[in-house]
Every structure is written in structure tokens, then in C-alpha cells.
Design goal:
The complex is a heterodimer of chains A (61) and B (168). Chain A has one helix and three strands; from the N terminus they run βββα. By secondary structure, chain A is α+β, with helices and mostly antiparallel strands. In chain A, a hairpin with a 6-residue loop joins β1 (2-5) and β2 (12-16). The two termini of chain A are 15 Å apart. Chain B is built from three helices and eight strands. In chain B, the strands form two sheets. Chain B has a five-stranded antiparallel sheet with strand order 4-5-8-7-6, with no helix packed on it. In chain B, β4 (99-103) and β5 form a beta hairpin. The longest helix of chain B is centred in the N-terminal third of the chain and has 21 residues, at 5-25. The chains are: A alpha+beta (61), B alpha+beta (168).
Chain lengths: 61, 168
């Protein structure tokens, strides 16, 4: 699961495993505002949801 | 038209971000949502999709999850979050004081089991019994509205002899 998050004071993307543990945390390049980060997240999920889903299912096996 | 599963996922992603934008713009709109509520998002311009969402929401509600629909683009001042609950309507057994009104022109029969003394806030359309107005607290049917009352029953009567012959 991917999560765009504004905790810790900066916009970043977390990847979580099926137990809800954060396995990857990446700052969004360019230090976007939260509003910009929201749009980046929207584009990312729209374009890449299949990849996120497949990786999640693969990791769960 | 029913979306393919992939189209449905893509649409739900778009709706999820529209939901986020609405809540960011006016956070108080989400005040009525409990933590970890299950949300089904209804766009204002897609009745076919919304019908499917409603079915899914009702199924989710039967599992005991706190389920809500969220009307995207709801006018200001209106509550966009509406709780979805699962109810099992039952015919009343006690305290019945029925009154029936038949309107010949529209061929509609209305049966009020409590002679106007109780309200049925929940409206449920059924194929078998027409429209049921149900008391939200007791889940009792308060009013039954039967459309095509005579025409449907005449059709049933005329088909009965054949059915009974076939059953012998």
C-alpha cells in the first residue's frame, strides 16, 4: 500500500506492507506544498496503482 | 453500464482525491465521520455507478462495518455523509390499527398499519411488496404502498388456473 503523508512536517510517500508497517519512506522531490503533493499523489496512483497492487500481492505471498 | 474492475478502481482513485479536496477545503464536512469508517463515494453525475456503490455500501453495512456514503459536490449547508445501515423490515404483529386507501386512477393501494399514529422514515422499494415505509427504531413496516394493485392482482388471478393445473 502506498500512502502520501504530511506527518513529520514534510510531504512524503510511505510504502506499507500488509501488516501496516512502513517499509519505505521517500520525500517528494522539490519540497512541494501539501496541495501540490496531493496532485502528485493523484497522478502517481492513477498511473501506477496496478504496480502498487501487484507488488503488495507479491510481497504477501 | 457496468464498469470493468480496472475502470472501477481508476474511478474510485479519482473520487478519493475529489473527496480529499472537499475535506481539505472544508474540514468540518467530515466531522460526522467516525474513525475508520468505510466510505462509498458518489459522484453527482454518474447514476449507474452510484447505484452499484449503494449496493456495495449495503453489503458492507451488513458485515457490521460503520458504513457511510459521501455525496461528492453536495451543496454547501447539506451534509455529504449519510450513514448506511442494514435493516430487516418485518410485518407488524402488535398494536395494529390498519387503514387502507385505494386510488382507482393511479391503481395504488396504501395500507397504513397504524392509522397515521406512527412514522416510517425509511423507504424501501421491493419487487414483491411495492414500497415499504419502515420505522427506523423497531424495523417494523408502518406503511405499505402497492402500485398496480388491481392490474397486478388481476394478472395473477388469470394465470392461477394454469399454475394449479401444472401443479397437479
Amino acid at each position: 500500500v502506498a500512502r502520501y503523508d504530511g506527518a513529520h512536517g514534510f510531504a512524503h510517500r510511505d510504502l506499507l506492507d500488509r501488516e501496516g508497517r512502513v517499509v519505505d519512506k521517500r520525500a517528494i522531490p522539490g519540497g512541494p506544498t501539501y496541495g501540490e503533493a496531493l496532485q502528485i499523489g493523484r497522478q502517481d496512483f492513477t498511473a501506477n496503482w496496478r504496480r502498487y497492487r501487484d507488488a503488495f500481492i507479491q510481497a504477501a505471498r | 453500464m457496468t464498469d470493468t474492475p480496472d475502470a472501477r478502481i481508476t474511478k474510485n482513485i479519482d473520487l478519493a482525491f475529489r473527496f480529499l479536496e472537499e475535506v481539505i477545503e472544508e474540514p468540518a464536512r467530515a466531522d460526522t465521520l467516525p474513525e475508520r469508517a468505510t466510505l462509498f463515494l458518489l459522484p453527482p453525475d454518474d447514476p449507474g455507478f452510484n447505484q452499484e456503490q449503494m449496493v456495495l455500501a449495503q453489503m458492507a453495512a451488513t458485515t457490521g462495518k460503520e458504513t457511510f456514503i459521501w455525496r461528492l459536490g453536495a451543496p454547501k449547508g447539506e451534509q455529504p455523509a449519510v450513514p448506511v445501515r442494514s435493516i430487516t423490515p418485518r410485518w407488524p404483529r402488535a398494536g395494529i390499527d390498519p387503514i387502507a386507501v385505494y386510488d382507482r386512477d393511479s391503481d395504488i393501494l396504501v395500507v397504513d398499519f397504524f392509522n397515521g399514529t406512527r412514522r416510517g422514515e425509511i423507504e424501501i422499494g421491493t419487487r414483491e411488496f411495492g414500497v415499504l415505509l419502515v420505522d427506523s427504531d423497531t424495523e417494523e413496516i408502518v406503511v405499505n404502498v402497492v402500485p398496480r394493485f388491481l392490474s397486478a392482482n388481476l394478472a395473477m388471478t388469470s394465470s392461477t388456473p394454469n399454475s394449479s393445473i401444472a401443479g397437479r
